[in-house]
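@channel sequence for tomorrow's demo:
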Amino acid sequence: MSEKILLIDDDVELVEMIRDYLTQEGFEVVVRHDGESGVREALKGLCAIAVVDVMMPGINGIEVLRRIRKESAMPIIMLTARGDDTDRIIGLELGADDYVPKPCTARELTARIRAILKRVNNSSRNGTLKIHVGDLTVWPEQRKAEWRGNLIELTSTEFSLLEVLVQHAGQIVSKDTLSEQALVRKLMRFDRSIDVHMSSIRQKLGTLHDGRSCIQTVIRKGYMLIKE
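structure tokens (generated this afternoon):
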């Protein structure tokens, strides 16, 4: 059965181009041209991923993201104006999994969609696999994480980044490696998305007994999950 993609964008011409391309690539596509109906469709739980344009009449894409995130952890890609770092960072802070600057090609967007769906669907072959790093426990196949027994609510991208750090606990992991292994794409110049995601993960995880974050920034090198 083909996976269902939700496109929420008022640009009719662009949406039709993207829908045609995605359909040719084997996806089923649902389109909504305004934020209100887009949120309602997303919360039905029938779509594997949503693509949301930031600039829409009525409620904009940021508000759409906010409303979906209150009730759903479904992967969400934001379409942002090229060079608009403010909307991009706000979207990532609110839980967007990725963003694509407009104008974009249908091929580029489809590649991003495939990358996110691939990492969501690629579960571990060992259904009982559980990894402990200090007070952190991760179940890769369930894409679930706990800190001192309490479930952590992570977006798809946040979990993927945390999983890479867990796999390299005690080692410095470069942003290039994090981007390629967690986001399944090369790190773009001036891309701050990993930094924003890491900030969100830190806030959701608890601190070590000495008050430090368990995720340390190593200047000009990357990030490290402390292995106690």
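heads up for whoever presents: The chain has two domains: 4-121, 131-225.
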